[in-house]
Amino acid sequence: MSDFLKHECGVAAIRLLKPLSYFQDKYGSTLWAFNKLLILMEKQYNRGQDGAGIGCVKLNMPLGQPYLFRTRDASKDALTSIFNGQIKKLNKKVRRGLVNLKDAADIKNNFDYGGEILMGHLRYGTSGLFDEGSCHPYLRRTNWPTRTLMVLGNFNMTNTPELNQRMIERGQHPVFGTDTQTVLEEIGYHLDEAHTDLPHAISSRLNIQEIIHNSAKQWDGGYAIMGAIGNGDYFCLRDPHGIRPCHYLITDEFIAVASERVPLMTVFEVESEQVQELPPANMLSIKADGTHAITEFTTPLKPAPCSFEKIYFSRGNDPIVYRERKALGAALKAAMPTVFTSGSIMTVAGFCVGLISTVEAINSVGLLLARGTIVSVIMVLVVLPALLAVFDKILDKTTKHKLPFVDDVEKQPETEELNQEMQ
């Protein structure tokens, strides 16, 4: 890779497989998906507080009626501001008698986020401006639903300049220098190329897997990207190395996607076994008619999950994450006394030699040795645990005699004792 990975944002999506009236009848609310998206994003608020954004696509809207919506906010309480703002607008219409909250058709026609596809993004800003324009989703709007595209994600393309240059060589005129705009335009370009027939005729034949395959050929970086096309097709993909996390839940009522496992478990009240991890180099695609598939869009590469995502951003009440953090803590606890003892002796000795000796050469060597020892101690206590997390699977497979706390976390059964300990 040509640059460092920097983004650790949060993503969430809900794709309803049943009409809004079904959720009104079963759960007592036409806003079931909207409310679930809010909670799903709140549960991942640890992943980004620099801004937020949500998007919605409504299926089968009458011609002339809006079908795609987006709201972004970069204020301090962006998530609260967005959802409270939408509820206030809706309540105002209800008070005026313009909307009946129990009427699914009313909600779909008069509430911006009363659609079948809802997506959300939490921004952890590490580059670009800290304003609304830097928040996801990004939108490519046209008069043709099958050419209209909305994209958001947790990603960092390390070769953005090369990707922009590729667009310029095609004759395009990229305006923004961010990787998000680059991804949006690249997918949009191949989406346009797929239109060999009139948009209304091509909608059902649109091959989103092929479009993503062609778009991602030159992508270099870690990413969990999701998007929706105006005709109602949805997609979510994960980079070939599995750097960025992505999980999904499929039921006969809806499909939900999130960066982390536990929010999906908590929000939809399901067991951990029901939430699946999207494999690296794979994409989840959902057509407008609800048919869905998980397929490879490129060749999987050597696994390299981001340890920073798992150790720092992921929620500790994920059983797998919890055990891995506990294993790292145990390793640090066992190593700290030895490292500090030997490091302290070497540091003190180095400084003493450097301060006492009158020979300039010996003085320099002593101080250099002391400073080097301090750096070594920090590297062992800070960098080494991250390396252990990155190469955990390799170490596990090549270790003959395992300590109890490094056993295969995915093979250990859930226990009441573990749940109590995590609480």
Query: How would you state the average pLDDT, rounded?
Result: 84
Q: Return the structural class.
A: alpha+beta
- Treating each run of at least 4 consecutive H or I residues as one helix, how many helices? 14
> How far apart are the first and last residues' alpha carbons, in Å?
40 Å
Quick one: overall form? elongated
Q: How do the strands of the widest beta sheet line up side by side? A: 3-2-4-1-10-9-11
- Give the biggest sheet: 7 strands, antiparallel
Report Rg: 25 Å
Strand content: 15-25%
Q: Low-confidence parts, pLDDT < 50 over ≥5 residues?
A: 1-7, 403-419
Element order: H for helix, E for strand:
EHHEEHHEEEHHHHEEEEHEEEHHHHH
Tell me how many strands there are: 13
Keywords:
423 residues, alpha+beta, seven-stranded antiparallel β-sheet, six-stranded antiparallel β-sheet, 14 helices, 13 strands
Protein described:
The chain is α+β, with helices and mostly antiparallel strands and 423 residues long. It has 14 helices and 13 strands. The protein has helices spanning 20-27, 32-42, 78-95, 104-110, 160-170, 179-193, 199-202, 208-215, 261-268, 307-313, 319-356, 360-390, 392-398, 416-422; strands at 10-16, 52-57, 68-73, 117-122, 138-140, 149-157, 221-229, 234-238, 247-250, 254-258, 276-277, 282-286, 292-296. The strands form 2 sheets. The protein has a 7-stranded antiparallel beta sheet, covered by helices on one side. Strand 5 (138-140) and strand 6 form a beta hairpin. Helix 6 (179-193) packs across helix 8. The two termini are 40 Å apart.
